[in-house]
Amino acid sequence: MHPRLAADLARLPDLLDVTRRQATAFLDGLAERPVVQAVRAPEPVPLPASGAGLQAALQDFATRWEPGLSAGAGPRYLGFVTGGVTPAALAGDWLTAAVDQNPTSSLDAAGQQVEEEAIGWLRDLFGLSAGHQGTFVSGATMSNTVGLAIAREWLGEQLGVSPAEDGVGALGTVRVLSGSPHSSVVKGLSVLGLGRTALVPVPTLPDREAVDPAALERALREADGPCVVVANAGTVNTVDFDDLRAIAALRDRYGFWLHVDAAFGAFAALSPAHAHLVDGLDLADSLCVDLHKWLNVPYDSAVQFTRRRDLQARVFQNAAAYLGPLGDTPDPVHLTPENSRCLRALAAWFTLRAYGREGYREIVERCVACAHTLGEAVGALDGLRLLAPVRLSVVCFTLADAPTTERLAALAGRLADEVFLTPTVYAGVPALRAAFSNWRTTEEDTRLIIRALERAVRELPEPSSR
């Protein structure tokens, strides 16, 4: 064994304690740390020939790289619908690396069994029936892509072909209908060979991001052959929800594959006041839920549910003698593009076991309350304009005067020490969005954000008269 490896192995308990202290110091400083750092990247250094050991690497990281890290795990990082990491999820993630399991094969089944229990808990959390079977993937993009891959195979089933065997060309023209699809859906269509132009935009309800059911029915009548409908349970800009029951009723008449993107909107099911927004979620043929958002587990983690695991296995099956047969209950190696991955479920299992339904209901309802508080403040603040009602956990707003991309970027820059907001465009208007999903965020953080916003708006230069 290399001397450095042997020395680190001998000192492993002490070195892990040093790592713990360094991680704890970082987390303890989140509240005071600038939310987004404005520091230059350190100069690159060459790969060391022999290395200096773990403790030296920890010191080098703390000196060169840690100062530039954002407070992404903290309570005022409100961009990208980014959750943090609960204490239990952090413990689960550390153990994930320590036990280093690949849960994709039942030949070594313990990790897979943990995942099955976690999937069952998540199914219960979102009010799904046993007809939905799930598997862990890396994020919403992969969850949507896997769901669309299953939909692609369903389209082939309707036409008497198998895209998995015969190629996507066997399908002919494919139509995917949606009102306000997430960008990952478009990426998934490209990856799957269906093409970005397969997406057919369907009109939304007035001043909404929710699809107009009447317009969707017209599009379905015009469709030539079987098609896919991508519904939204929580859009990115305004957390709008399609009427899932109305869409499912259309499926009964027109016959299509219903994929629901509920990346973070599925968590509305935990709040009695908002559960009606996801009424009909269980009617989906495939379903995307992102876990490194409101479940507050580390990147990367999501779950993909479907009622047609047989089609899923037909797409992703992997034929190799050392993997064993496909069987009636396919291993995860036959269900996603990944042949190998970490025990991704462990962080989710730990945090669900530690805090349960009531713990997550409290997180969701607190985040929603914070979003409403900020939305009310934005609506009352001279110089800002709320672009949509706060339906759940996102506040979408712009400048009342000259809302250009440049002026909004300047406003976001003035806020960067206190809060991180991401830019967007809503109804053709450049805007900013604040997405509440972090378990640490409190009303006190929201009041701090409001004060920072008031100050930044006052100090923002007047628009040019040119």
UniProtKB/TrEMBL annotation:
Q: Which residues carry this modification: N6-(pyridoxal phosphate)lysine?
A: K293
- Superkingdom is Bacteria
Q: Lyase: is it a keyword of this entry?
A: yes
The protein's GO terms of the molecular function aspect are: aromatic-L-amino-acid decarboxylase activity; pyridoxal phosphate binding; transaminase activity
Q: Which GO terms describe its biological process?
A: carboxylic acid metabolic process
Query: Sorted alphabetically, which InterPro entries does this protein's record hold?
Result: Aromatic_deC (IPR010977), PyrdxlP-dep_de-COase (IPR002129), PyrdxlP-dep_Trfase (IPR015424), PyrdxlP-dep_Trfase_major (IPR015421), PyrdxlP-dep_Trfase_small (IPR015422)
Question: What keywords are annotated for this sequence in UniProt?
Answer: Aminotransferase, Decarboxylase, Lyase, Pyridoxal phosphate, Transferase
Specify one Pfam family: Pyridoxal_deC
Q: Which cofactor does it need?
A: pyridoxal 5'-phosphate
What does the similarity note say?
Belongs to the group II decarboxylase family.
Protein name as it appears in the record: Aspartate aminotransferase family protein
Q: Which organism is it from?
A: Streptomyces kasugaensis
